[in-house]
Structure formats: structure tokens, C-alpha cells
Design a protein that fits this description.
This protein is mainly α. It contains 8 helices and 3 strands, in the order H-H-H-H-H-H-H-H-E-E-E. The protein folds into 2 domains: 54 residues, Muramoyl-pentapeptide Carboxypeptidase, domain 1; 113 residues, Arc Repressor Mutant, subunit A. It is elongated.
């Protein structure tokens, strides 16, 4: 059902998430392969899985992303929410951080919203959309690995990071 879920997130599958590879799932796989530049043979081999993982999330990772985006940036513009998601994706690509969404989000002291309990809040639809856009590669932060609110930041170290862009109340940095 992970395959069907990922196709559903992309708007390519509207059937039941039953884990069965039937005609509906096969048609959705072919559509995905056509849209994302693969041979549209309906086979979910390693290349198709790589593409799916590049542009989608598992249910668990989607929930983690939406919750951290909502907790950290719920008062920000849509672009600001995508930016928080982009920082997570940038960290996954960096050798300085864990290489999974869960690893990045729950790294000790990485996000205030995890340590102060805001992470437990229920995310809204906008946070889920922002997570999808960040995973698909929208990065309004210019490859930033950090962000902070200059009015509330207490760790002096963050001020030593090179700024890339301001989005809403957050400063993004590398």
C-alpha cells in the first residue's frame, strides 16, 4: 500500500489503498513513469522506486514533515512553510546531518518545536502541501541548512552562520 499511497499523494491513484497490484495501480504506475521520464512499462523496479522516493514520502515521513512544518512555521506564509521543509531536505543531503527525515527532525536539540512539545500539534492541510512541495524540490532557502527567528533566537552560535535569505520572520543560513 506504500506504492499506492505515494501515487495517491501525486494525484495519480484514486483507488483503495489495499496493497494489491491490480489494473488501477498498474495504470497509475505507467502514468507516473510517463510524467517523470521513465519507460512506461508498469513495472516497479529499482529505477521507478528511486523516482517515487525522490518525489514522495511514506505515510510516516509525511506525518513527521507536516508536524514539524506546522509546529515550526504555522504562522508563516506558504513559502515560509515550504522553506522549513526545504531545510529538512537539505540536511538529509548534507554529510553533517542524519540521512532520513526522522533522523533530522529528532536529532537532539535540532528543532525547538520538538523539545518544547509543539511537535505534538495536529498539522493542517497547508503543512502537508508544503511538505510535498519541499520533497519535490522547491527550495526557497537557496540550500540553507539552518533557520532562526532573530527576535527569539537565544543560541549565539546561530548568528555566526552565513545568511542566505529572509522569509517572513525567519532568517535562513548555511
Amino acid at each position: 500500500s506504500d506504492l499506492q499511497y505515494r501515487l495517491q499523494v501525486l494525484g495519480l491513484y484514486d483507488g483503495t489503498l489495499d496493497g494489491k497490484y491490480g489494473p488501477g495501480t498498474e495504470a497509475s504506475v505507467k502514468e507516473f513513469q510517463r510524467e517523470y521520464g521513465s519507460a512506461a512499462d508498469g513495472t516497479v523496479g529499482p529505477a521507478t522506486w528511486r523516482q517515487l522516493r525522490k518525489y514522495t514520502l511514506s505515510k510516516n515521513d509525511m506525518e513527521i514533515m507536516a508536524k514539524i512544518i506546522y509546529a515550526e512555521a504555522r504562522g508563516e506564509s506558504y513559502k515560509g512553510q515550504v522553506a522549513v521543509g526545504a531545510v529538512i531536505m537539505n540536511r538529509i543531503q548534507s554529510d553533517e546531518f542524519p540521512d532520513t527525515i526522522q533522523g533530522v527532525v529528532f536529532q537532539k536539540n535540532a528543532f525547538t518545536a520538538v523539545s518544547d512539545g509543539q511537535y505534538g500539534m495536529k498539522p493542517n492541510r497547508t503543512a502537508y502541501r508544503a511538505a510535498i512541495d519541499a520533497v519535490r524540490g522547491w527550495d526557497p532557502t537557496h540550500n540553507s541548512l539552518y533557520y532562526y527567528n532573530p527576535k527569539t533566537a537565544t543560541n549565539k552560535w546561530i548568528w555566526t552562520r552565513a545568511r542566505t535569505v529572509n522569509i517572513g520572520r525567519h532568517v535562513f543560513a548555511i
